[in-house]
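Sequence in, structure out. Go.
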Amino acid sequence: MDAARVEGVLSQVIEVSLRPGDYPIETLLDLTSRGLVIRDALNELYRTHLPFIVQDIVPGIEARQLKVLLEGGAGSGVVSAVQDIVTAFCSAGYYGRAFPLFDPSKKGAPVEGYGIVSREPILSHAPFETPDMVLLFDPKLFPRLRNQLGRYANADPRGMVILVNTPMTPEEFRAAAGFDDPFLLHTLSAAAILKGKRIPPNYAMIGGMLGILGREAVDPAAFAEVVRVSLTEKFGGGENVEANLRALEEAQGRIMGESPHPYARGLSALGKVSAPAVPEGQVILCEDGNRAIARAIAMVLNLFPSVVAAYPITPQTQIVEWLAKMIADGILSAEGVTPESEHGAGAAVMGAARDRVLAFTATSSQGLALMSENLHSLAGMRMGNVVLSNVVRSLNSPLDVENDHGDLYKVLLDAGFIIMMSRDVQQAADFHLMSYLIGMYAEYRKKNGQLEMIPDKSVMLPTVVASEGFEVSHAPERYVALTDAVVKRFYDDSFFSYVKTFVDTPNLSITGALQLSNSRQDTDYQRHLAMQVAYRVLKEIFARFERYTGRKYDFISSYNVQESDVVFVVAGAANGTFEEVAREFKRHGINVGVAHPNVIRPFPAEEWAQLLKGKKVIVYDRDDAYGAVGGRLYTELAGVVNEHKLAETGTDLFSRIYGLGGRTPSLPFVRDEMHQALASLDGTRELSRSKQYSGVKI
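Output:
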């Protein structure tokens, strides 16, 4: 290396403002040797050098979003406010996702809500890193908020708006709070607008937000109409609805603030969008996963005699609540059964399934474990007319109501069910719509004047559709729902006539769970054959679903795998976060692949073998198979690698355990995991071959 050239480059480098990071002198020498002046050489380094690209990943994602943080006490309307904000923007054509963070404490305890709006699909299921706007519903919580602002030390405070519910002017509030940080402070007196009415300040605060954003960012009249519909659905109309709407409108002109209107940062993230094109018979909604699942499954149950039997448990309770409400309101024709426990729910579903109706239940965590005795019987007795919605959650002990995949993997994976895994609200709704068509597939023949199933041409296995607890179940997002008419046309397809045949054919058999031991291996082998039939049938169901809806599914969802040397396999909601980061790397010219298992049972080994051939594959399991060489997805894929001799093609497999007990993987976490994998491609870093725990804090 020429010492004189090095000295010359370094003398120029120290004269300019630099980003934090390591500067490879060899690369700078090469860039300057091409005739680039030092500033251009540094910009090229920032654009192409992986460590600097990594610094830009999360800011690049969030720059295209409007991110709103709401803080208040329990009962102040924070949860409904963040949901209504996102719903209104989705109705106007934007993409949105809300993350209401519930607190189990008494009324008045701090509650947070995160709302994200963008012109682009929002794939991440993690809260954002830096808000653009903060709505503080209760000024007494300002000390708490002030401490939180320290988390955003790397952000420019002059680009962040804070709206405080107080009668003080911004200047008075700053003086009273001793707050001189250069955030864009606004105040609004919700009490003066509500004039003593016993309603929470949420819609006044939303109105203040709209006033700050300005009419160029959002149409207040359209927004108000969405709020009217939402409130009317909740309260049935009346003076409370009208009072909230007046507060929403009046607050837009009552804000006192330090930034020009409209808010430039909000406009740059939003801009104008056109109304999205929606296929006939479909409608854009903004709902959480539990509501979407209840909506979807109800449309199917209404087509046939059906029974719903379930016991409430967090985080699936709202599914059962919605279905119970539909039954009470006469919207759902199913028979509702209220059992005394999840074990009782499993028994009720078993009894209903014996009488050839469509049976449905939903559960999570310890409820699933309590139901397990009946689950194995349901599968063993080949009750394909049963669907179970598993909103995944940690298993005890210790007691943890947060989400991971422990209940699905430890209770259900080997119970003999068809298993589908969803990563967002759209998949959760669509997979529930298809679920009965998979498990109930059977071909029939006449024997002695009666119809009977052909054993080796039938599935008749119960189906589980798994969805992420909280990150999907409680987080509203934009998706496209089918109408009843489209669902009916879909189920009326002649290929699916086996459902009606099953329901209309009397059950003349006697079914029990007892079997003599000298037959057990044979009937278990029949279940193996049934899984093979399910594998073939799933392809046809996916194809016909696409024909009716325009949405294409397969055993695996993947992004950018063919172009990438490194692939991340992630199940559930975190898959969207991984894809969000991978897409941002792609914007910088770096290929990272991401894959999601839509179907776990039957396990689609052929599809995985084709997808992962010659790749470096990091498998992230949101459950720990204690003492095993890796997580469950990892060991499944290790079997595929062995069976298909993929090691000979260069396929390399790594096991990672992450996200246990609701430790949601953040954008920076995913970015750093991808950085390590990318750095391993050129030997800069080495990935451990043993099972690793990503994100452990001890």
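Check: Residues 520-549 form the longest helix (30 residues). The mean pLDDT is 92.
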